[in-house]
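mind reviewing this stuff:

——
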Amino acid sequence: MKAKKIFLLALACFTLAACDDTTDTLGSSLTPPADKLTVEADSFHVASRTILADYILAKNTTGYLGRVKDPETGDVVRANFMTQFHTLDNFELPAEKEIYSRDADGKIIADSCDIELTFDSYYGDSLAQMKTRAYLMDSPMEEGVYYSTDYDPIKEGNVSKNSFHQDLTYTLRDETISDEARNSSSYVKNIRIRMNKPFTKDGVTYNNIGTYVMRQYYAHPEYFHNNYLFIHNVLPGFYFENTGGIGSMVNVSVPLFAFYFRYGEKADSIYSVSSSFAGTEEVLQTTTLSTNKDKLREIANDKSCTYLKTPAGLYTEVTLPVTEIMSGHEKDTINTARLNIPRMVNQNHSEYSLDVPANVLMIPEDSLYTFFANNRLPDYKTSFLSTYSSSSNSYLFGNISGMINNMYRSKLNGNSSQNWNKVVLVPVNVQTSKTSSGTTTIIGVSNNMSLTSTRLLGGTDNPQALKITVIYSSFNGK
């Protein structure tokens, strides 16, 4: 039997070998003495601690809005968000002469206008009375700029207190909707902000901002050909600020700017229609967060465990024992390096306990900020994604041998960074798409900014709590 074939056959047995304490004879049982394949297994302790991120990249595909009290810390978390709106390449309105909605002077108008913040999920009390103010941005936030969650568009001058705005008091459960309508399959949960007050731009006053958008279209249709022109000449975006209330935070999946009008070629065939623009991944969406940093540093100093906590930015740092793993195995192949990180029992039993992070990304600590800024995806060589398993109550990183090998080579090549063998576990949102064949592909990874929290086994007081299990192989044939 050829050596390569023997080696591939051995690989198929490594999973079994990881569960067997006696692997010393596995190689010889598979191959003749002249072509001996040796397989070994070992385990090493892994150190971990909690760190507080210096900042979090604000770009996301979900907007967060509200104000709640963290049941674990008592800290009040406040979230505001900004969204721009996407215009389709082939966007068009009916011919100008067909627009039936007009003012007393015969000028085109929108009959009404609103913004819908549609959502699937939220945290807290759906009947908590909340207040928000929707500001039209004075100037757009720019693509290519790395905005952090500390970035406040009002303080930074993108919005002023005198900017056009609309206030709203709301609850996430809309009590004006009947139970029958709310329970129908066609109902979409949303916060609707009516934008029907007069809007003034460049000395011209319009009955609403929708009318301004319509007239811009007929005067400058080229502004609607791409997002850059639309954002810089028509709608720079809206900033939604929590201005009162406490008790709920909503995860806005799709913001919609819509205006309504009537059109038709003849007076006896008039249609009432709407046109809308959505906040999508093609344009910028950012979240601004307010948290108590001193309280978070206090939590990070808890040495009895480690934390994953969003949107606070509490992450778990893991130091991989690369030198120990490679010692005596410099010429061997690391086939698997398995790290399982269990959760600890939740000590908080509040009605509004925070969710466990569903997806956790492992990345080198030196890549904590650049990974998200550069829109990178997990490659399972230098970055790994794990999904929480409720059956094992843990996060499993099944094979990070690529990470171990890369770190070892980096050290041999002169890497003098103090973080050369450190990785960080970061809760993330994962965006996927399905191909025509049904295959699911990851198309985006971003910082999770929803309210999640969990404690993990480990911490500096428990240096032997976590272990990484490694399987090596070496081929001694000639």
